[in-house]
Fold these 2 entries.
Entry 1:
Amino acid sequence: MKRLGIATVAVLVLSLPALAHAEQTSGKKRRPLPPEFGRVVLDAESKKAGVPPVVFDHWLHRSKYTCRLCHVDIGFAMTANGTKVKAADNAAGFYCGACHDGKRVTDGRKIFDSCGKGSPQEVRGTCLRCHSQGKNVVPQVDFVAFTKGLPKGRLGNGVDWELAEEKGLIKPIDFLEGVSVPRKSLTAQKDFALSPKLEGMPEIIFSHSKHTVWNGCELCHPEIFGAVKKGSVKYTMSEIFDGKYCGVCHVTVAFPMQDCQRCHAKPVK
Amino acid sequence: MRRTGRTFLGAAVAAGLAAALLAGRPAAAQAPAKAPPPSPAPARAKEPSPAGSPAAAKDAWKREFEDVCAKTQDAMSLTSEELRALVARCDKLKPAVDALDETERKVASRRLRECRNLYQFVLESRDGR
């Protein structure tokens, strides 16, 4: 009991500088609301083309497709504006256009054509579905209605996506005909524990199986985790809050790191 | 006109490289990738191109690419020799990918780099143990 108390205090003490650091590095940004968590604004090419930047919310896409499908098979970079997608790329069937081609069907509906041809009125209406920054665009799928039946999470989108998949409430697709490379299903590596630097902190349980279901191998290795020898890199919370290592996803899209116990999960002996 | 010329030149380079690649591969590796599971109409799937045409060579690079990158899920269970062979095949394929048109090159080169680097990473992590 006493040890549990020490561990709780240690978690709080350790998270304070990390939270303070996050606050410093992100200025005085407010914490995003559940529908906004995972939102990226893509303006690398939009402004040049004279259209408003694209506002992309991860929550809808992540409920239908694995991270790997978009970030490996389709080729989206892991940083906002890292891909520099052009309208011509989409129209040629790449990036957004890999699915948004006006032909592919999901949930019994044709996926709207991105950057495709049409009458000016159609084009304008369709363009604004993505190029929506600063525009009063009502999304076709309402966040509250969509997430109503999904298991609740404490932070981020307020949804426990992992549990939602476990319960079969979401079934993210990992293969896109004509884009993905057919391959065998993955045999996940074993879970392992990482020792925290602070004594009394619960150990970090890293679950390969949980991560590989959505990410495959090449999304993380070696670009995000490049160390070839176990223990050769000392990961710090400061770096992670800066968006390195786990922070590549867990600052932006996956459950946020303020949810300490989801990683520091092994009970203290 | 200039663009057409460049495109033709790119296709010709890709054709040569892909033909060279296929010539150096074992027969089993040349077999087309397994048929994917049924799903909606493909966005980029095409009819097979006539043999010997630049389009056929384009298909050849893609077949090789799909064959090489289909093994990322098995990387941990492959032998070091197999991993080295895959890294070499990725390196050999790179010029053909570099000769593609801008968008396709951007997508394919990133994917190829990820495959290659993963195989290399698994190799090195074995040595690093």
Note: Chain B has five helices and no strands.
Entry 2:
Amino acid sequence: MTNHWIDIRNSDCILIMGSNAAENHPISFKWVTEAMKRGGKLISVDPRFTRTSSKADFYTALRSGTDIAFLGGMIKYILDNNKYFKEYVAEYTNAPFIVADSYDFKDGLFSGYDAKKRKYDKSQWAFVKDANGVSKRDRTLQDPRCVFQLIKQHYSRYDLDKVSATTGTPKEDLQKVYEMYSTTGQKGKAGTIMYAMGWTQHTVGVQNIRSMAIIQLLLGNMGVAGGGVNALRGESNVQGSTDHCILFHILPGYLKTPKASLPTLAAYNKKYTPKTNDPLSANWWGNYPKYSVSLLKSYFGDKATKANDFGYSWLPKLEDGKTYSWLDIFDVMYKGEFTGFFAWGQNPAGSGANSNKTRQALTKLDWMVNVNIFDNETGSFWKGPGMDPKKIKTEVFMLPCAVSVEKEGSITNSGRWMQWRYKAANPPAEALPDGQILMKLGKIVQYLYKKDKNAVFPEPILNLKWDYATHGEFDPHKMAKEINGYFLKDITVKGKKFKKGDLVPSFAYLQADGSTSSANWLYCNSYTNKGNMAARRKREKSGIGLNLGWAWCWPVNRRIIYNRASVDKYGKPWDKEHPVIAWDPKAKGGKGGWVGDVPDGGWPPMLNADGTPNPKTKYPFIMKPEGHAHVFGPGRADGPFPEHYEPIECPVEKNPFSSQLVNPVAPTYSTEMDIYRSCDPRYPFIGTTYRVSEHWQTGVMTRWQPWLLEAEPQLFVEMSKEMGKLKGINNGDKVIVESARGKVEAVAVVTIRLRPFQIEGNTVHQIGLPWHYGWVYPKDGGDSANLLTPSTGDPNTRIPETKAFMVNVRKV
Amino acid sequence: MSERYRGGDLMSGKAFFINTTLCTACRGCQIACKQWNQLPATKTHNWGSMQNPKDLSFDTYKVVRFQEHMGSNNKPVWYFFPDQCRHCVEPPCKEASEDDAPGGIIIDSQTGAVLYTDKLKKMKAQDVIEACPFNIPRAKKGTGYLSKCTMCVDRVHNGLLPACVKTCPTGAMNFGDRDKMVALAKDSLAAAKSRFPKATLTGLEDLRVFYLLAAEPKKYYTYANVDVLPGGMDRKMALRKIGRSLKDLSQEWQFINKLAS
């Protein structure tokens, strides 16, 4: 989230789309309720009328996979009706920037598309630079090649007729949502979006979110209280795991995993350290080498020296152009190219798209280690439906682990708040905390490498600093301090003296010369000489809910990021009633300073009190090289402006917005288990997957809880009354849901909460299932809905497209 | 003046105020009740609704009931009703059991909670169930023992909220002194009227569980609010039949209280 949970109560208009927050983030709904008590409005847009919709001021439906059409229509509405916050857009975003002539968009494709490679040359999407190498801009937003005019042009096709014919949403409903939400473009009003997997799990997932980011920038909703782009994460600590970057393409703190084509640290740092020629741009990523070197010092300790590039050559490298995402892992595993696999705190046999492919892939392994608290479909894959244990060679080790309340450590929530938690009980029998298992594993691997004189390339293992134990036990405090970072020698930084072994107070003090370590620069400031900031529990007495003394959030406890966009150029808040920060000229003994939240950089406002520009200022969006927020986003794999494409499996033959039916750079796979069927009469209905309050993920933990299972005992499939009539299915009947990849048995819930869509003149039905069940337990519970879903995903993130695919349904 | 214990007056004791317009049917209340009372889970199957267990039982003191309708504007509405014992100020189940099983149903003097004791086994379970206008008490198969919500009287006596109230994330479940809950209910109704013109409150007159409903009670559940006892008798009529009125009760209690002080 750019904002945080409690801040939602400050919103004037909450759009819940791509999320069913009342269902899946039930505690968060407390803040939605609070916002509504204060007069805020709630809009729910969802293919189904959900528990969230039941509380909304306004609900409407859209067909799964058409969010960009819906939101593109809103962008058009905002621009056509002058609902945008002009000063904000002109001053804080790249809407005024002039785009190079090499950028073009024609009939569904952006310039630079290589059809053979199925890839874009993003250098075509550049800005025109002036003599100083700074992007040219027209703050009046009139230049025909400025981003503002180009975006107007781009969404001119997204009129109500076309949007309605694509989404199935009635025109008057579209109009109503656009009207309600765009009122937040007024100064002093704030609108927020709460979204989750309903937006991300598509081949256009990232562009869904980009659409909303653009809307939020046009309306001036970024950096303000009650605004922001708020992702509701799907696990209590997935934000933590994302921040510590256990995904293949990033290193802790969102640094980049090095590629094989970058053989030296210098080459690596050069490639990923952006430069700016604009003196008013903070270009915070310009500090990249300080963070990458500090990370290397954390990894390799004293073994990392300037002479050996701080151990850079010991880091694993990615082959250029190759991806190693979830979908890739199981594709390679299916092809028999993995010997072993750690399924650590997960259940891939139920959680990944195309479960049959995943389950078959597991049979190719020599060994698997399943670290979990209960038996599950992954650890027991070899005795699952259709499996013959005699033919499977995989040796499976089950390592029982502790649950979250049986160990001490931190959890980072969706709002970026790192909250320390204490151990409440001992784990049972032989179960160990994950940290302990990892500690021991690391030590044993190091020992084996030491012992084996013929070990290949032992340096990365033997040189790893692996000292996170106290009395033989994994010590979360040691790890938390390592994450924060240390001074590795006596040093003076910014006029302050530090001793070797001092904890670094914030990332502003990290160095690129090896004198500091930090296992995650973003978390530098979380555990300092002042103590464990994540363990603080001081409640705010009054205010907008920032709670600066409760736990700690990144970066440097800034609760609402981009908050220097919440003020005008004089430093006065747009919203007097909910100020996030404000410039107080009398603060700091008359020097002036910001009050409120931790400002997004302490630089003074852009204008002095007398209206003259202050050369000491910086633009508010400090993480962008040019300091301006991206309305035009040249970094995405599939284009600088979101464009509607149909899901890979879709119910229409033509895309009304262009000739390009599907995302031209979306990844697909080519084993015999990767089948995609569009407009196939065998699979005429749209299928989607979702969750219920009472279960969680693949149900690995919740199916074993009798009270939860009692409330939601079985796999069900929701369908409209019209569809029930069409297929002769009554409420409560057993049915089979089938896709090109697999099938499941489910109980039919025939309901008025789903209705067929009118798509380009045709009736299209949609159904949906929760993905919480698995064959292991209970026996009559049903199996994973991911047996139906396709192995395709977003080209930027590779998250699978489990929210829109094609199925059929029949009575058992 | 009878020596029989009369349920206390409307000004004392505790009450629940349940604002269904805030309820998201998360089932936290249903499951917190199970956990606090260590009730076993029952075997259920999906019968075409999220409502599970389908009904109250000896092992289920609280059930969130789901009801969908087509509302105005051709959009669905989905009503959630967290059903539980109403802890009537003058419980018909108690009246029905006085003769056959005295002491089988008692009223806690501190809270007004209506509680079943083991002396109730002298009574036929079906007779108790049929006396309840809200169809709440449930019997254990085989033994005929009855159970229902206890208002978490053990928690309340120790300064804690009932489990279901403690757990509720949205503020739908409220609990406190009866007169304070009456005031909260009335304020909440006023606030709800602008969004839900047909909003209504139930139970203020003679129960310890008030519901704020967005629409007529029947749209939520048959027994959401009932004035008619099984057998067609109005609750007020039933009291009049035994020579009492609600006003009498109140005055009588105040008289007793004065005597006792």
Note: The radius of gyration of chain B is 18 Å.
